[in-house]
Amino acid sequence: MDVALEKRQVERAYELLAPVYDFIFDWIFAPGRQAAILHLGLRPNDTVLEVGIGTGLNLPLYPPSCRLTGIDLSGEMLDKAVERAQKLAMPGVVLKVMDATSMDFAENEFDKALATYTISAVPDPVAVLREMRRVVKPGGSIVILNHFRSERKLPGHLEDLVAPVCTRLGWKSNLPMTPLLNEVGLTPELIVKVNMFNGWRLVKCVNRK
Ligand SMILES: C[S@@+](CC[C@H](N)C(=O)[O-])C[C@H]1O[C@@H](n2cnc3c(N)ncnc32)[C@H](O)[C@@H]1O
Predict the structure, then answer these.
(1) Contacts with 102 (C-beta within 8 Å, 6 or more apart), sequence order
(2) 2: pLDDT strictly greater than 80
(3) What is the 144 CA–ligand 1 centroid distance (Å)?
(4) Pocket of ligand 1 (CB under 6 A)
(5) Domains identified in the chain, total number
(6) Which residues constitute the domain of residue 63?
(7) Which of 3, 33, 55, 61 has the fewest beta carbons under 10 Å from its own?
(8) Hey, is 112 helix, strand or coil?
(9) CATH code, domain with 9
């Protein structure tokens, strides 16, 4: 599908989802979130980029000293994140509407980057991961938490089958992990299965460049 069209579909989907997003995605996906922030291995004063921060459900999990920048394509999702950051009194948090495929950041600007449940929601995951590599310092961590296409035959076929419907709802059900990481030159240091039925994978990579 045309990337520009898919991007408009994603924007529309998250405009509609924003008011109910936390109700659906908070508790079910909480274990993965906790593991993802833990595996970022944050140190005081680290600069962190969260890509597709959505409504900011990860915000309470960051240490207070963290210098976090969060970006999202959807203004409606980001408005919720702004409210949350204000409630949590997190002055070190900067939130911006931005397309993760063409980020307005310099090379090597961040120590670490995180994308939770986002890589399968973006129209062009390769471009997003390339941008994450560009803006993270050499040796910095990139942590991705996502559902990827199952490597088992039947579940994989089922995920292919429902893919057209899922795309309209704003995410890809059948994104294959290994070819994606290979294409962008990321080698996982750690892969942990998380959440219900171990259906999601937390992937930690070191940004070698
Ligand atoms: C399933 S939500 C995940 C939100 C959040 N990371 C979480 O853990 O709850 C996917 C998010 O990715 C955002 N997104 C999709 N495409 C994007 C893009 N090209 N650039 C930035 N954000 C994007 C959507 O607007 C949405 O907020």
Answers:
(1) 127, 131
(2) no
(3) 12
(4) 10, 14, 25, 52-54, 57-58, 71-74, 77, 99-101, 116-118, 121-122
(5) 1
(6) 3-206
(7) 3
(8) strand
(9) 3.40.50.150
